[in-house]
Amino acid sequence: MALLGTLVNGLAIVIGSLLGLFWRNIPEKTKATIMQAMGLAVIILGIGMGLKSKQFLIVIASLAIGGVLGERLDLEGKLGQLGDWLENKLGGKEKGGIANAFVTATLVFVIGAMSIVGALDSGLRHDHAVLYTKALIDGFCAIFFTSALGVGVIFSAVPVVLYQGVIALFATQIDRIVPADLMKQMIVEITGTGGIMILAIGLNILGLTKIRVANLLPALLFTITIVSIVYYWDKLSGFAGSLI
């Protein structure tokens, strides 16, 4: 079942969020310390991912072009509106806001190599080990995020399942379309691009910046596009060179 790992991941976020609700009565200073620790951990994760890029110019170009498109589409605003809608449906506002909790958790859980690699493994080989590992990590993160930010974290399970599910289903056919070496290059550069976004999320969690990370999400698509262009250009140049 190609979607098994994805469903387990979504369930882990829901369970972690529910457990986090029982920790809501912890002192505010403790919550602040937890969020600072989470912010620092997310920053280190982002730096590690960003350094994996082999062609950093692709990362820079993707972020620049993706940022322009994201601002035009106002993805951050639309995610915030969805969070506000959930907040209104639940009635009342809580500390930090459901919208903020939903957006922050969604970006942390969705962006990253494990989401892509895990979903690809699930679709290609029905190997769910990576997503099971991610489920464990996300579940624990959901506990701490919920305890500090609120119940909005639980709703992040929906975009996680949709995002990873689409990749897993697409992966069942992707090996017929995308060469294995091109796929490896894509994953490396997507990891690098995603790492910059994860770093930005960590800085936002610490309150040092207010970067509209969701507006950078199109950069992931541009990374795929640019890597593909460079890959086939190199192939074409090599073929042309062999004819001369």
Overview of this protein structure:
This protein is 79% helix and 0% strand. Helix 2 runs antiparallel to helix 9 and helix 5 packs antiparallel against helix 7. The protein is built from ten helices and no strands. The mean pLDDT is 85.
Q: How many strand units? A: 0
- Rg from Cα: 19 Å
The end-to-end span amounts to 49 Å
Helix content: over 70%
Strand content range: under 5%
Uncertain residue ranges: none
Mean pLDDT: 85
Please specify the SSE layout and strand pairing.
Elements: H1 4-21, H2 28-50, H3 56-73, H4 75-90, H5 98-110, H6 113-125, H7 129-149, H8 157-174, H9 180-205, H10 218-243
Helix pairs in contact: 1-7, 1-8, 2-7, 2-9, 3-9, 3-10, 4-5, 5-7, 6-7, 6-8, 9-10
List keywords for this structure.
244 residues, mainly alpha, 10 helices, globular
Structure summarized in a few sentences:
The chain has 244 residues and is an all-alpha fold.
